[in-house]
Write a structure and sequence with these properties.
With about 140 residues, this protein is an alpha+beta fold. About 35% of the residues lie in helices and about 35% in strands. The radius of gyration is 20 Å and the shape is elongated.
Amino acid sequence: MELILKQDVQNLGFKDDIVSVKPGYGRNYLIPQGFATLATPSAKKVLAENLKQKAHKEQKLVDDAKKLAETLKALEIKITAKAGGEKLFGSVTNIDIAEALEKAGQPIDRKFITSGTVKRTGKYSASVRLHRNVVIDLPYEIIAE
């Protein structure tokens, strides 16, 4: 079953992508939730025309995301957490990384940051999606309080 996504769906695709999914997933989840519509020939033509018109605006967004990526790479992010030796009391997640970025003056939504759950001090990196075409690895360090 081919569908056109109306918005980004994690692990499936981005807005305006044409994806092929199993009929039950499309019929019972994506379409009723408003995440997608059927990819009929006429809907594909409308989508192609809309994408042509959005191409110029999209290029400006990509350029802005690349500039933001350069400023983020220049940042040194240090997160302090309570620890006993090397092991943390608790863990550091993407929420903590988002808060550290906000303190540094670069607010980024936590859903665009992908990092595992870290339970030890040291240096790590997180993946930050600034745009569908711009994804950077952001190094950060966890320091014991």
